[in-house]
Each structure stands twice: as C-alpha cells, then as structure tokens.
Design goal:
By secondary structure, the protein is α/β, with parallel strands linked by helices. It is built from 8 helices and 7 strands.
Amino acid sequence: MNLPLSAMATPGLFISFEGIDGAGKSTHIDALARAFEAQGRAVTLTREPGGTPLAEKLRALVLNDTMDAMTEALLVFAARRDHLQQLIEPALARGDVVLCDRFTDATFAYQGGGRGFDLHTLSFLEQLVQSKRGLEGYFVRQPDLTIWFELAPDIAARRLAGVRVPDKFEAQPAAFFSRVSEGYLQRLQTDPQRFARIAAANSRETVWLEVLRAVRQKGWLT
Ligand code: TMP
C-alpha cells in the first residue's frame, strides 16, 4: 500500500506534542487549550497511547508490561486506530482543535529509535492505521502541526529524578533517550513543514512564547 501523505481539509485542527520524557510538554498543552478556548474554539485534549477507554487499557499494558518491540508497536498502533476512529476523527469533523500529547512520531522515536524496531514496518502500519477516506480518495491522517520539545537526555533525567515512580520508558538509561531524540530528528527531516522545533531547556516562559509563536505563524491564534 502506498497512500499519499497529504492532509485532507477538515474543519478542525490537529496539533501533536512530542519530546522525550521530562521535556515538559504538559503545562504548555493545557495553556494552549485555554488560549484556543479564549478565542472561542472548542478543544479536545487527548493523549497517546490512550484517549479512549480501549486505548487507555492498551496504554497500561504498553507502559507496564515487558514485551518485544513488535508487540509494543502493534499495541500502540491498535490503540491509535481506536483513538482515531472514536475520538480524533469525529472531533476534527466537528471543527474542534485536537491537542494530542504524542502521536505517531513517538512510535518512530521510541519503538523505532529507542528500541531499534524496523522503520519500514512502522511506515506500513502508519499508512494502514491512519488511512481515511476523504472527498478525493484515501489519505493518511497526520497532525497539521507537531510541536517538538527538544531537550538533552541528561537534563530530562535530572528533571524526572524523584518526581514520580518511573514507568517502563522513564526508567530507561540516557543512551535510550539519545536514540529516541535521534528518531524525532529523523521524523522532522522527512516532513520539516509539519514540525516546530522548540528548545525545551529554556525557561518555561520562553518555551511558552515559542509555542504561541509556532501556532500564530500558522494563523490559528491571534
Ligand atoms: P506520557 O504520556 O507520560 O508521555 O507517556 C507515554 C510513554 O509512552 C512515553 O514514555 C512514550 C511512550 N510511547 C511509545 O513508546 N510509543 C508511542 O507510540 C507513544 C505514543 C508513546
């Protein structure tokens, strides 16, 4: 299967947020939701793996159980399929702004980069799972914008230390997160217009201004 990777015009907006664990996405996602709501937009806030009752069950397995990389990839894509069908596509069709904490770039970064799983298989699964019938035939659903919070693994590890009990991924060594970061960089290089790359080591305020700038540049917030 070789479907075009073009986004179809739907009334909504789809923005994803990426970065290694500890990069500090969450506060900015909430703040962006409030900024859109203040301008009268309905917002659907969601996350991956997860976002629906079934996908949240799969999330618990992926984050806590030991499994081989292919099983992990299949589970995150199964969760993604349900999430798209049940939540994301209906929200975009209604005209919502969908703010999603991680999406498929995380699979390429964590399962592909971190765990070394085959990228061609991930691309095949991406096309299979994210294909959607539109007015002009099938297309592959992708975020309209991906905000990548880029942070050196050693800084992220210091931020995470002692904050909470680490899940399976958070407990990985710095070398794992270097490969994850490399995975994100490769994704950016294959689709640079989709990405806003933000230096997450800066102060929270500076990072927030960069997030706003990325969204305003698209003309989506005034
Ligand atoms: P988070 O919601 O706290 O960011 O945790 C989700 C974890 O799952 C995070 O460590 C990244 C990982 N993950 C994958 O390994 N593959 C994926 O496709 C996604 C979406 C997340």
